[in-house]
Amino acid sequence: MSKYLCQLVIIFCSIIAITLASFANASSVLDLNDYEDDVAALLLEYQGQDSYSRPIVPSVLVYKDTEQASTYVDFKRGLILVETRTKAQLKEAVVQVLLTQIDPTVIDAQTAEDFGLISKKKKPFFWGQVLDRDGKAIEFEWRASRYADYLVSKSKRSNSRFQVAIHMVKEHTTIAGNKYINYARSASRKHGISTDLIMAIIETESSFNPLARSRSNALGLMQIKANTAGRDYFNLIQGYKHTPSSAYLYDPAKNIEVGTGYLKILSSRYLKGITHPKKREYAVISSYNGGAGNLWKSLDSRGNRTKALARINKMTVSEFYWFLTNRHNREETRNYLKKVSSRQKKYL
C-alpha cells in the first residue's frame, strides 16, 4: 500500500510541475501587438528559443546572444534589434552596433565577443544604412551616443529586457551591395558571368550578410558549401584538390570569386549542351539552388541528361522559364529563379 501511495504522490507532483511550467510559459509569451510587423516577425522567429532550436536564416546575424544582452541584425528586413537587462547596457550595446566593423577576416562568426570591433580608420559597417534623427550617417562616437540616448528613451520593456529596434534606410540593400560590386565586376571579367547575375544571387542568398550561414553550413555572401561548390572550384578552376575553410569563405572577395567560378562550372561543364545562352542562364540559376541533377529529373523521370537536353533545346526561352518556375521538382528552386531573375534588373 505504501508503494502505491508513493507512486500516487509522484504522479500528483508531476502534474503540479507540468501545470506550473505551463503557467510560466504562458506568462513569458511575447505580446507582439505593440510591435511593428517587421520587429514582431523577427521576435517571433528568435525569442524564447535556444541556440539549438532557433532557425538559422542566412540573412539574419545573431550576436551577443546571452542572458544579459542580444543583438540581431536582419539584413533582409533592414532591422537591427538590441536587447539588454538595463538601460545603461542598452545604450552601450546600441553605440557598439552603430560603430562596429563586421570584418570577416577578423571576426569568428561563432564568437559573440568579437562583435563590436571598432576601427577609427574605417567607416562603420552600417554607415549610410542607418541614419540618426537628423538624417545623418553615423561615423563618430558623439553622434552614435546622441542617437543611442534617443533610442533608449523610446525603448520598450518585455520579459525583463529593454528593447530597441533600429530601422535601416529604405535603400539599405543597394548601399550594402555597393560594398561588393567591385568584387563582382572582377569575378565577372575573369569567368564571363554577368555582374547583374552575381549581384542578384548574392542578394537572394544572403541579403549581403558577409557572415551568412545556413543550417546546411553554406557560408558567406554566395552561400558556398565548402565540400561541394568549394571543392569543385579548386579542383576544376584552380587545378588542385582543396576544400576551403570557413574563414576563407567568409572573406567577401574570396567568396564571390568561388561562387562566380562555380557558376562558370555549371554553365560550361554540368549544363553544357544547352545551346541558347538565356536558357542556359536560367538553368544555371536553377542549378545553383537545386543542383543539375534535379534539373534533369524535372525534365525526364529517370534523370536522363541527353533526353533532358533535347527537351530544353526544343523549348523557346519563355517556355523554358515557365517550365522551371512551374514544373521544376523543387518548389524552392521554382521560387528561387523568380527572385534572382527579377533582381537582376536592379544591377544592369
Report what the structure shows.
53% of the residues lie in helices and 7% in strands. The chain is an alpha+beta fold and 348 residues long. It has a 5-stranded antiparallel beta sheet with strand order 1-2-3-5-4, with helices on both faces. The N and C termini lie far apart (83 Å).
Helix content: 40-55%
Q: How many individual helices?
A: 15
Strand content: 5-15%
Can you give the mean pLDDT?
Answer: 84
Q: Poorly predicted ranges (pLDDT <50, ≥5 residues)?
A: 8-30, 48-55, 106-118
Total strands: the figure is 5
Q: What's the helix-strand series?
A: HHEEEHHEEHHHHHHHHHHH
Biggest sheet features:
5 strands, antiparallel
Strand adjacency order, main sheet: 1-2-3-5-4
Task: Please tag this protein with its features.
348 residues, alpha+beta, 15 helices
Question: What would a concise description of this structure say?
Answer:
By secondary structure, this protein is an alpha+beta fold. It has helices at residues 2-28, 37-46, 87-99, 141-153, 172-178, 181-191, 195-206, 226-238, 246-250, 252-270, 277-290, 292-299, 305-314, 317-326, 331-344, and strands at 60-63, 69-74, 79-84, 156-158, 161-167. Strands 1-2-3-5-4 form a five-stranded antiparallel β-sheet, sandwiched between helices.
SSE blueprint:
Blueprint: H1 2-28, H2 37-46, E1 60-63, E2 69-74, E3 79-84, H3 87-99, H4 141-153, E4 156-158, E5 161-167, H5 172-178, H6 181-191, H7 195-206, H8 226-238, H9 246-250, H10 252-270, H11 277-290, H12 292-299, H13 305-314, H14 317-326, H15 331-344
Antiparallel strand pairs: 1-2, 2-3, 3-5, 4-5
Helix pairs in contact: 3-4, 6-10, 7-15, 8-10, 10-11, 11-12, 11-14, 11-15, 12-13
